[in-house]
């Protein structure tokens, strides 16, 4: 099987990792493809099954865990699973491309642990918890309870930042995109 590189973007919700990953995927000189994660949650408005996530039930998710179909997975909240299917990596590498992940902090570190030489793990950090909370609220996609859960989780996730290859502070989105581009281009070449 052909192998390529793995580029992991991890961060708390509202840090900008998805926006940065999408920007890189649109840069035609970078041979990247997006690893679509599996999730046991319902789609948000505008999300498409098979493009944003593979939306499956919690029971289906547990079945795939038992079949060892995941490279990594986590129960982020009760009955709310996220994971990376091994078949996604195989698909992208077989196309001669490098894999880009938009993944939670624990999942990102699990990938780095399994593929230490092939992985560039980037922790995207918002300027502050307050700014991250503001970004989450501006999405208007989550309940107050969910926002508070995500803010509390983010405070914990900041403690993992030093375990990543690099920390990309997203003070200014355009600058963060350029910094990410430089990091990825250097890593894959």
Could you spell the SSE succession in H and E letters? Answer: EHEEEHEEHEHEHHEH
What's the number of structural domains? 1
Total strands: 9
| Top-tier CATH class | Alpha Beta
What percentage of residues falls in helices of 4 or more residues? 40-55%
CATH architecture: 3-Layer(aba) Sandwich
Short synopsis of the structure:
This protein is α/β, with parallel strands linked by helices. It has helices at residues 17-25, 58-66, 86-94, 105-114, 129-139, 144-157, 173-188; strands spanning 6-10, 32-34, 37-39, 53-55, 70-77, 80-85, 98-103, 119-125, 166-169. It is globular.
Structure in words:
The structure is a single chain. By secondary structure, the chain is α/β, with parallel strands linked by helices. The strands form two sheets. Strands 2-7-1-8-9 form a five-stranded parallel sheet, sandwiched between helices. It has a four-stranded mixed sheet with strand order 4-3-6-5, with helices on both faces. It has helices at 17-25, 58-66, 86-94, 105-114, 129-139, 144-157, 173-188, and strands at residues 6-10, 32-34, 37-39, 53-55, 70-77, 80-85, 98-103, 119-125, 166-169. The model has no long low-confidence stretch (mean pLDDT 91). It has one domain (6-188): 3-Layer(aba) Sandwich (Rossmann fold), CATH 3.40.50.300. A hairpin with a 2-residue loop joins strand 5 (70-77) and strand 6 (80-85). Helix 1 packs across helix 7 (173-188) and helix 5 runs antiparallel to helix 6 (144-157). 34% of the residues are buried.
Task: Give the arrangement of secondary structure elements.
Blueprint: E1 6-10, H1 17-25, E2 32-34, E3 37-39, E4 53-55, H2 58-66, E5 70-77, E6 80-85, H3 86-94, E7 98-103, H4 105-114, E8 119-125, H5 129-139, H6 144-157, E9 166-169, H7 173-188
Helix pairs in contact: 1-7, 5-6
């Amino acid at each position: 099987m052909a192998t390529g590189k793995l580029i992991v973007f991890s961060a708390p919700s509202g840090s900008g990792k998805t926006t940065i990953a999408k920007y890189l995927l649109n840069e035609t000189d970078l041979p990247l493809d997006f690893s679509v994660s599996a999730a046991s949650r319902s789609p948000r408005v505008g999300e498409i099954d098979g493009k944003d996530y593979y939306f499956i039930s919690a029971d289906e998710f547990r079945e795939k865990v038992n079949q060892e179909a995941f490279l990594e997975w986590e129960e982020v909240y009760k009955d709310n699973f996220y994971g990376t299917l091994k078949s996604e990596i195989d698909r992208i590498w077989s196309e001669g491309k490098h894999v880009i992940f938009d993944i939670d902090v624990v999942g990102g570190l699990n990938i780095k642990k399994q593929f230490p030489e092939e992985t560039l793990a980037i922790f995207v950090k918002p300027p502050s918890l307050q700014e991250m909370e503001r970004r989450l609220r501006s999405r208007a996609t989550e309940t107050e309870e969910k926002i508070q859960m995500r803010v509390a989780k983010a405070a914990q996730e900041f403690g993992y930042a030093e375990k990543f290859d690099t920390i990309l502070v997203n003070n200014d989105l355009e600058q963060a995109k350029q910094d990410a581009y430089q990091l990825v281009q250097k890593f894959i070449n």
